[in-house]
Amino acid sequence: MQLINYLNECFYTKHTLLQLSHISANKLAYLQQQKVMPTASYRLTIQTSCQSFLADHSEESVQEYYAKGYVKWLGVVEALIEPADIYQYFNKNYRLTIQQLKQQGFVCHDEKLHANIDEHITQEWQHFLNGTYGLCTASGLVQDIARKEFAITSINELIAENETSPDLVRLEKAVNLLDSASALFAPHERINSSRNRLVDQIRKKYQLTSPQIT
To answer: What pTM was estimated for this model as a whole?
Structure first.
């Protein structure tokens, strides 16, 4: 039940997504075929069996779960319409988020977020469409995708530079950024997740503090 509780609390079922977005199942399928709308992040197969005096019965159903941020994304898709314009929106906002992080003092040297950013964003777009980022980011939206990628890259760079004594101020800032951009992950995923590896374990290893929740 932990998995079902997590999915119901942190995601929208396909039915709820369609209701809140005011679109049909056929329109959602069309947008996914057009490669402008992500597929589901989770597909839960539910097998039901029933025994009674008169007859036994069994059936199977599939429930799809989508990131809650996709209601907003569908609004963007409906407004822009053209696939090229929708991708440019993603590209522009990814770049803008990276630029804002740099202005806020975050540091990352990997060329994928500098000279090679065009190729990198193309790859990120594909991960976005296949539902990966709906699963592993807080909102599933481009801003959290860019923040998560920047944070992970920055953390790995800081550890690689000096694992025994990294810059703890920069490291804590990057870890907190990753914390805010990341999903909680389903119970069965957490031990292998980037959140456990680069937030929980890094905080424990270097005795970093967590932001105070108000």
So the answer is: 0.92
